[in-house]
Design goal:
By secondary structure, the chain is of the alpha/beta class. The chain has one domain: Rossmann fold. It has ten helices and ten strands. Helix 3 links the parallel strand 4 and strand 5. The protein is globular, with a radius of gyration of 21 Å. The chain starts with 8 loop residues before the first helix and ends with a helix. This is Three-Cys-motif partner protein.
């Protein structure tokens, strides 16, 4: 068995929010003529393993705790979705995921499918066949490894107008690529940021010249040597991402900071986005998500 070790309390917070929304989604739509679909584009192994030191001060012993991952949480949602689709690129995780998903799905009579490979390889096909062509409705969980979700993919998802999205955005991925000094940005970093953010405007947003920095403006003829160092905080970068997402999706929630502020550096932000432009759907989605947000995050 391939242990998938990651996360902590913040992971359970993220999954608690997703779990609560899945129950609302399948309950609210259980009597509709269309079907409900769950898609997990980065499903992992099906569970999360956390190693705890029994006596951390003295370095003695350790125990492992196992928690249900997003895949198993989705499969156990009641009422159930009509179909489930799990993508995982790491072979060892995929094998474990497929075994766990198959065992549970068969014993509970569920339609659940696993796909080996990347989200870019499978996601469009799954959405096309099980959402667009069938006029179904879906919840999509995007919990990528770093900056593995392209803006072009988000545009494709939004165009369906049939998918609600949880997007765990890697702020740490932005930090790694968006260097403090503009001159240190290489081609790979620039291309990665352009692909993830869907624009080159981040260069003028975060790297300004000394005389325009306070005004929030940028001299387009400046050289890398004259641009100010990037000074934005994680919260400001998070705010910029929300602005970008809000230009694409009709509804974008206030993000949940993970880990929560005050518990160390913020590594991720969990966004909830709706692609359906219907006013009543947006109002209901906002009301429900806001309730879940307040209940779980306090």
């Amino acid at each position: 068995m391939a242990d998938h070790e990651f996360g902590g309390d913040w992971t359970e917070l993220k999954l608690a929010v997703v779990k609560a929304y899945l129950v609302f989604f399948t309950t609210a739509l259980k009597n509709q003529t269309f079907k409900t679909v769950y898609i997990d584009a980065f499903a992992g192994s099906g569970e999360r393993v956390q190693t705890n030191k029994d006596a951390p001060i003295f370095g003695e012993g350790e125990t492992k705790e196992r928690f249900a991952g997003s895949a198993m949480i989705a499969l156990k949602t009641r009422p159930p979705f009509h179909s489930y689709h799990f993508i995982e690129k790491k072979p060892s995780f995929y094998r474990q995921l497929k075994q766990e998903v198959t065992d549970y799905a068969v014993s509970h009579g569920l339609d659940a499918r696993c796909y080996p490979g990347t989200a870019e390889e499978h996601l469009k096909t799954i959405i096309t066949q099980h959402v667009i062509e069938t006029n179904n409705r879906a919840v999509l969980f995007l919990d990528p490894y770093g900056l593995d979700v392209s803006w072009e993919m988000l545009e494709f998802i939004q165009a369906t107008e049939k998918i609600d999205i949880f997007y765990l955005f890697s702020l740490s991925g932005i930090y790694r690529n968006m260097t403090i000094k503009f001159a240190n940005l290489d081609t790979d970093k620039i291309n990665s940021l352009n692909r993830t953010l869907g624009t080159t405007e981040w260069q003028t947003e975060f790297y300004r010249t000394p005389d325009t920095h306070k005004q929030g403006q940028m001299d387009m003829f400046s050289t890398p040597e004259t641009r100010c160092d990037r000074q934005e905080t994680p919260v400001e970068i998070e705010s910029y991402l929300r602005q970008r997402l809000s230009k694409l999706f009709p509804y974008v929630s206030a993000p949940i900071a993970l880990p929560p502020r005050g518990n160390g550096a913020q590594l991720f932000s969990l966004f909830f986005c709706m692609s359906n432009p219907n006013k009543r759907a947006l109002e209901l989605g906002n009301k429900v998500y806001s309730h879940i947000f307040k209940k779980i995050t306090g």
